[in-house]
Amino acid sequence: MMSASGIVASGSFSLRSALIATVVEDGAVLLDLQTKYFYKLNASAWAIAQLFESEGATLADVEAACRTWGAPQPAAVASYVLESFEREGLIEPAARTRALTPAFEQPWVAPTIARQAEPLQGLVTSAFDPSIPLAE
Hints:
By secondary structure, this protein is of the alpha+beta class.
């Protein structure tokens, strides 16, 4: 696992307002309305992401929550997730910090954050596209 950059290590962050979350059985799917990319988060990554939904969270908040949830090496897990969220542009600086730790009653698994290969506009075709055959 990597260590958090100076920016992520010292700041408070929240999920970007352009993200829409849909909870699924084993985590959540985030849709970025600006980039049109989907992100699949497993249950552990979704629990961490929820820390950023309230008024913001810090690296220390994430580490404390991971420790509460039984994550091995909570500091490394927190750094990895924050670096991943920052790299994907899922978080933005928050003015305040008041992370509320969500309940997480599942067995801990390593967090995964997977971005789909193509943005939504690359997956959706137009009904008026002449290359699509008409139904008979």
